[in-house]
Design brief:
By secondary structure, this protein is of the alpha+beta class. It folds into two domains: 156 residues, FAD/NAD(P)-binding domain (3-Layer(bba) Sandwich); 160 residues, 2-Layer Sandwich (D-Amino Acid Oxidase, Chain A, domain 2). It is 24% helix and 28% strand. It has eight helices and 21 strands. Strands 5, 6, 7, 14, 15, 16, 17, 18 and 19 form a nine-stranded mixed sheet that branches. Strands 9-2-1-13-21-20 form a six-stranded mixed sheet, covered by helices on one side. Strands 3-8-4 form a three-stranded antiparallel sheet, with no helix packed on it. Strand 16 and strand 17 form a beta hairpin. Bound molecules: flavin-adenine dinucleotide (FAD). The site of flavin-adenine dinucleotide has 36 residues, from helix 1, strand 3, strand 14 and strand 19. This is N-methyl-L-tryptophan oxidase.
Length: 377
């Protein structure tokens, strides 16, 4: 390991804060840059909660990475003394024959994950806040729950600083220029030379790297908070939840016990347009789909939202992120396109970024997300 390498982390958000921590922990000289400050709400993070789950319905190849992330979540909490994650379970509900339900059961069986399968009667008794339909199944992933995104990013960034990293806040990187023996980072204040750069700019990836050979589609995501009219939402068990079909949606009881946050799947998000000009106003017609979902599956939620927020996220065509060297620039490590499921994995991807930046390779099973020889996103 080349512990004395100078590494730039461009974008100290979800992935960048974790990369800065893992790099600094390994003795690298780390300099982070963010156009805002760690923990802000102008990008892909924010809104108080993100779901953590062990079972993966997109692809069971994520499970080993989730296990690695799980260990690092524990480590970060122990080293900093902050509760970043709470394991309250996650209920997955949807038609029995649906592909995502099948993949979850596959990853549970393949990796021996702690779970319970509930029938309609069991669900109604234990979690009366949800309705399911004939032919639906419900699976409770027990090693699951919620993460606090703002606290996590600030905690990881601060921990990195305590380990020696420097973070330039409110400093936009304008250009990343590969040069002999490294890379130059250009900001309005000048330029700095590094051995390697880790690029974790989230929704700004096309803005900073316009020549990227893959498409990362930047979408505008609405989070909507609703107040329950019954107590079940905040009982002893208060799992996060995902409904797979016919309309994919998810939700989390908020940590303060006041409201329930709902969100929708990729197919229902509008393109974000220029990330510097994100439209943060939610029109009443954009809420109709939330109202329908509440009426059908969560009738104890009052359908008038008490809070609305808008975020951005980059999606690849396959929903698999892009992780690895930028083509033609071996000293630039790219992490982008987390496609709505990156937060739970962030410590693992931060660690993988540190592997790639310091050693040029990672022992983790990342072929399926690698940029190397990747023709399609
Ligand atoms: C509403 C919503 C709900 C989600 N729910 C979940 C969930 O429940 N579970 C889950 O696992 N995942 C979830 N995700 C996905 C997860 O939040 C994202 O995959 C993850 O946050 C992406 O991290 P990132 O580091 O790529 O981007 P960000 O966290 O956005 O970080 C990018 C950073 O780069 C900075 N930056 C950009 N351009 C520059 C520049 N030129 N110079 C300097 N700095 C720059 C930005 O300011 C920002 O801080 C959700 C996403 C959204 C939007």
């Amino acid at each position: 390991m080349s512990a004395s390498k100078r590494v730039a982390v461009v974008g100290v958000g979800t992935m960048g804060s974790q990369a800065a921590w893992r790099l600094a922990a390994r003795g690298a000289e780390v300099v982070g840059y963010d156009r805002f400050a760690p923990g802000h709400d102008r990008s892909a993070a924010g809104g108080e909660t993100r779901i953590f789950r062990s079972a993966h319905f997109e692809d069971s190849r994520y499970v080993p990475l989730l296990k690695h992330a799980d260990a690092l979540w524990e480590q970060l909490q122990q080293e900093t003394g902050r509760e970043l994650r709470r394991l309250t379970g996650c209920l997955l509900m949807g038609p029995t024959g649906h592909q995502q339900m099948a993949t979850v059961l596959e990853s549970i069986a393949e990796h021996g994950l702690d779970h319970e399968v509930l029938d309609a009667e069991g669900l109604a008794k234990r979690f009366p806040q949800f309705r399911i339909e004939d032919g639906d199944a419900a699976v409770l992933d027990r090693h699951a729950g919620y993460i606090r995104p703002e606290l996590t990013i600030q905690t990881a960034a601060r921990h990195a600083e305590q380990l020696g990293a420097r973070i330039h806040r409110y400093t936009t990187v304008r250009e990343i220029v590969p040069v002999a023996n490294g890379v130059e980072i250009r900001t309005d204040a000048g330029s700095e030379h590094f051995d390697t750069a880790v690029v974790t700019v989230g929704p700004w990836v096309n803005d900073l790297l316009p020549e990227l050979p893959w498409e990362v589609d930047i979408r505008r995501l609405i989070s909507a908070w609703y107040v329950p009219t019954a107590d079940a939402w905040f009982g002893e068990e208060r799992p996060a939840f995902i409904r797979t079909a016919p309309t994919h949606c998810y939700g989390l009881p908020s940590p303060d016990g006041v409201s329930v946050k709902l969100g929708l799947s990729r197919a229902l998000h509008r393109p974000a347009g220029d990330p510097n000009q994100l439209d943060r106003t939610v029109q009443p017609e954009e809420l109709e789909i939330f109202t329908d979902l509440i009426g059908r599956y969560m009738p104890d939620l009052s359908p008038d939202p008490v809070r609305l927020s808008v975020y951005m996220e980059g999606y690849t065509e396959s929903s698999r992120p892009l992780v690895g060297p930028l083509p033609g620039a071996e000293n630039v490590v790219l992490l982008a396109g987390f496609s709505g499921h990156g937060f739970k994995l962030a410590p693992a991807f931060g660690d993988i970024a540190a592997d790639l930046a310091l050693d040029g390779t990672s022992p983790r099973p990342i072929d399926f997300v690698s940029t190397i020889d990747r023709t399609e996103a």
